[in-house]
Amino acid sequence: MLKNIALPLLLSVLSLSAMAEQTELQNEPAQAQSATDNNGYIVDDLYLFMHTGPGKNYRILGSVEAGTAITILNTEQDDFIQIKDDKDREGWVQSQFVTSEPGLRQRLESANQALSDNNAQLNTLQSRIPQLEQANLQLQQDNTTLKNNITELEQALEAQVQASRNKAQTEQHMLLSYGGGIGIAGILIGVILTLVLSRRKRYDGWA
What we know:
2 helices
């Protein structure tokens, strides 16, 4: 039963994480454009050469792959801008191919990282399912034991109350019996005294 509850919960967590990641990816371009740092990217679908100076007539240092994250080192000169690429090489590239928006490669890497994190969370939660089921079973057993103890205590309390009532009734009957015996004894003593006194008066009259 716990597994049936946990699995939909895990799917919901993954769905929310995916939605959050998608929203984050959609918001990244706007955030990059408004950033005040010198981070940038080479536009997608492009194989760009990096030169030693701000122009194509300068020596080529190498190429920069599309979507590469770069650091902007200098302001634009003659439609070129100085950058540092992911290999720590410094050079100049055409500024029209530099953007503040992350490319598809960065988005793919972010999505893959988010997927990896979600899978790790899923595995962690799935590994805890047996422990949670065992804990749930133990709680159910403890609950049953407590219910049985409560029932036994209620029965013992009821028996004690009934015993107290029976004892009180017995004592009351004994008191009534003692009182009745004392009353009868008093009546008998009164009758005997009356007879004795009557005989004495007769004897005194004869004398």
